[in-house]
Fold this protein.
Amino acid sequence: MIEDKRYEEQANHALVAATIANVNRGKKGKKLKITDFIGEPPWKEREKKRKQQEQIDSTNKDELRQIALNKGLAADF
């Protein structure tokens, strides 16, 4: 995807920025990461949404299975 490639390109710049910031921080300063400059990768957000949808689908299947069993129907899906 285009946004993935763009993120990867920006990650190089963020790596340099994080390195410079970490070299110049004080002893008690926060250690910065690449994600502090450009955020989480777009594929992590997609993965998070996919997992949430799978959880919703699983819950819906369980509810439908229970309804079918309560009505005496086959629930083999």
DSSP finds three helices and no strands in the chain.
